[in-house]
Amino acid sequence: MNDLTTTTGIVALAAVAVALIALAAVVVLSRRLGRMRDDQRVLLGEHERQDLVEHGAVLARDFASLHAYVADVATRLEARLASAEARLDGAVAYSGLVRYDAYNEMSGHQSTSIALLDSHRSGVVLSSIHHRDQARLYAKQVTNGHSQLELSPEELEAVRVALAGEAGGGPEPG
Does some domain include residue 124? Predict the structure, then answer.
């Protein structure tokens, strides 16, 4: 025990204390390094050989590629939407139906006029005229809400009902 009170002993004790402190520092730093590597794996993925600058460059390149892809998809979607809108303009957007008794026979409202128009107010008016002995079907083209052929009052009413957006139309049978 006398060796510890000498200068050599004190230096040895100080060296042991410094070694223990260094060992504790190594353990703490090792844990911090492990956590930092875990964080780095989260940030960089499993590419441990890649540094942060390389990873940033890869991310920028991938982001530019993704941006180009999204811009291409958006352009294609806009073209498809324009095509769909053009097709929808030609679809039936307005319809109007009028039922009436064409011959005033008191046989009920067996005759019908229906207007089928697109968003440009163009289309067709179909009239089905029923009589006891016969039935006739007439079709008249409508362009921009007007027909080149004269429309009957019932056909005009069917066009008016269609363009007004009303459902059905005309008097009810009874």
Answer: yes
Of 89, 120, 155, the last residue of a domain is 89
Q: Are 72 and 79 in contact (CB under 8 A)?
A: no
CA 97 vs CA 60, 104, 111: distances in Å: 61, 19, 11
Q: Let me know if residue 111 belongs to a domain.
A: yes
pLDDT digits (tens, 9 = 90+) for 127-174: 999 877 788 999 999 998 888 899 999 999 999 999 887 444 444 433
Total structural domains in the chain? 3
Kindly report the backbone phi and psi dihedral angles of residue 87, in degrees, each rounded to the nearest multiple of 5, phi listed first.
-70, -35
Give pLDDT, residue 34: 92
Give the C-alpha separation, 165 to 82, whole Å: 25
Say which residues have a Cβ less than 8 Å from residue 117's Cβ, sequence separation at least 6. 92, 93, 94, 95, 123, 142, 145, 159, 162, 163
**What is the maximum span of the chain, computed from C-alpha positions, in angstroms?**
140
CA-angle at 141, arms to 138 and 146, nearest 5° = 120
The token pair at 95 is 């319809």
Stated pTM of the model? 0.52
119-75-93 Cα angle (round to 5):
10
40 and 66 together in one domain: no
Phi, psi for 34 (deg, rounded to 5): -60, -45
